Amino acid sequence: QVQLVESGGGLVQPGGSLMLSCVVSGSTFSFSDMGWYRQAPGKQRELVAVITSGDSTNYADSVKGRFTISRDIAKKTVDLQMNSLKPEDTAVYYCYVRFTRTIHWGQGTQVLVSS
Fold first, then answer.
1. How far is the CA of 48 from the CAs of 38, 57, 65, 74, 88, in angstroms?
2. 40-88 pLDDT, tens per residue?
3. Which of 87, 88, 73 is CA-nearest to residue 27?
4. How distant, in Å, are the alpha carbons of 1, 24, 34, 48, 70 from that of 62?
C-alpha cells in the first residue's frame, strides 16, 4: 500500500521561502511521475510541478523560476522548494505519485503567504 505524507507548510511573508517535503512509503517501483498539486479556496486543483521517472521536470507557468521540484530515490521523498512566494501561492498543497493505473495522494499541507 502506497502512502504519502507531506510536511513543511505554514505561514510565510511575501517574498519568503518554504520547502515542502513528501515521504512516500510502500513500493514506488515503476512509477510514472510524481509531484505537487495545489488547491486554493474556491478554485480547482492545479498542477504545480511534476518530475518523471526519467527526472524530467515541468512547472506551471505561474511558478516557473521560483519553485524547484526534486526527488531522492534512496529516501523516497519528493520535495518542492518555493522561493519568492506571493499571496496567490496560498493554497493547500498535495503531493502525488502516479503509476500506470493508479494515482495516490497525500493529505495536503497548508501554505499561507501573508504579511
1. 7, 11, 12, 24, 13
2. 999 999 999 999 999 999 999 999 999 999 999 888 899 999 999 999 9
3. 73
4. 33, 26, 19, 8, 18
Neighbours of 101 (CB within 10 A): 6
Chain length of the chain: 115
Amino acid at residue number 77: T
Q: How far is CA 106 from CA 66, 96, 113, in A?
A: 23, 6, 21
State pLDDT tens for residues 97-115: 999 889 999 999 999 999 9
Measured CA to CA, the distance from residue 3 to residue 104 in angstroms comes to: 7
Cβ-contact 10, 112 below 8 angstroms: yes
Q: Rounded distance, CA 43 to CA 34, Å?
A: 22
DSSP state of 63: T
